[in-house]
Amino acid sequence: MKRIFLIQIFLLIALLSMTGCKTGSEEQQSAGEPAKIKIAASFEAVKAITEAVGGEHVEVYSIIPDGTEPHNFEPTAKDLMNLQNADLFVYNGFGLESSWLDKALSSTNEEKKLTVVEASKGADPLLLDEKSDDGKAVTDPHIWLSINGAELEAENIKNALNNADPAHKDDYEKNFQAFKNSLDGLKKEYTAKFADSQRKDFVTGHAAFGYLAKDFGLKQNSVSDALLSGEPSAKKLKELTDYCKENNVTTIFVEDMVSPKVSETLAREVGAKAVEIYTLESLPEGMDYISALKYDLEKIYESLN
Question: In the CATH scheme, what is the homologous superfamily, with its name and number, of domain 33-124+138-184?
């Protein structure tokens, strides 16, 4: 299977070479414009953070197509073509891309030195209750949903861009600071709001908000686990149903990238309303990273009061 995958990659590269296809950077250079740094990001949230820091000096593509759930994603040779022309590859880490990362990197042109950036490097991971097949603790990958986590990822990306393109270091520093200031503004606003909230717990369909909850001293309870590794058991659903009834939970959050069926059933069972919330694995139309994160925080705040 791996041999077939590699053959597909080589054939696509050869086809592009024979047809004289120009990259975006080549087209810019031929037009007399400064070449942008070409960056492949693993999925949409990483792409958004990279664009916020890189600004006008970068051209960023997602390996995982927008609107595609990244958990257990397996890229095709076509999905990986942007990696062949990239100067940098930025991925989230914490195991999210582990099913395909090594295979993707092994398919790149060995003569070209691709800078690989693990955006979550240096962060303290949250460990899940579940265990891997070899009995090891499993890391929650959803750090990009945390304000503190997003700031760390942005700083790691900034440092990589400074090394790759020192001529524009001042711009990357300025862009990073603007992004951080926006995040800090959200942190300040919602720290004050959550401090006055009547309750500190919320219920989601998918356990993706552990890092965000930690930012503000909240607790999430969820129908499905963080890795979407199967349907919830009848015991799990009964425990959560009882919890919602005993604690008068009025809102069950439904994630945009996950089937809403079980969450909507739970909402009906306990007399709650189902409210959409975003995991930022795909940015909602008309929103950027900051506005989508603010939307989530506001909906969570409303559910606690």
Answer: Nitrogenase molybdenum iron protein domain (3.40.50.1980)
